[in-house]
Specification:
This protein is 73% helix and 0% strand. The protein is mostly helical and 138 residues long. It has one domain.
């Protein structure tokens, strides 16, 4: 529970705190990704599904394609249901990141990489592993 509280506080401070706190996103995602490898034994990791895939290149390609399709679908659903209003979850998330404040501090490609790549890579992996082990879901 302590780890969950610490990770939640780090994410909350990164979102709601000053722009200088944004690197906490990356640190929090890296911690979520690495945590299962620290307390879990090899048998525990295998039990929750962490094992070497047969064809990793194909698996990464199809999972990235499926993830992009799902993200586009959710984005389109938000636009259809709520338009560009604050009720649209995409607009709310975009505004919480304070992109206008950050735009002057770094080039756009670096800004995208800093915010989007850790969220797309580490957050789903860490959350799935953490919640599967802690709450016994599969």
């Amino acid at each position: 529970m302590l780890v969950l509280v610490l990770l939640t506080c780090a994410r909350g401070y990164a979102v709601l705190g000053p722009p200088s706190a944004r690197p906490l996103f990356l640190l929090q995602f890296l911690a979520m990704w690495a945590l299962p490898f620290v307390p879990l034994t090899r048998a525990d990791r295998r039990e929750i599904g962490l094992r070497k895939p047969g064809d990793a290149v194909a698996a990464f390609f199809w999972s990235a394609l499926a993830g992009a399709a799902c993200a586009l679908g959710v984005f389109a659903l938000g636009l259809v249901l709520f338009g560009h209003s604050p009720e649209n979850w995409n607009v709310t998330i975009r505004d919480s990141l304070r992109l206008q404040e950050l735009r002057g501090s770094m080039p756009d490609p670096l800004l995208f990489a800093t915010i989007a790549l850790p969220a797309m890579i580490f957050s789903p992996i860490g959350e799935e592993i953490l919640f599967q082990k802690r709450f016994g879901t599969s």
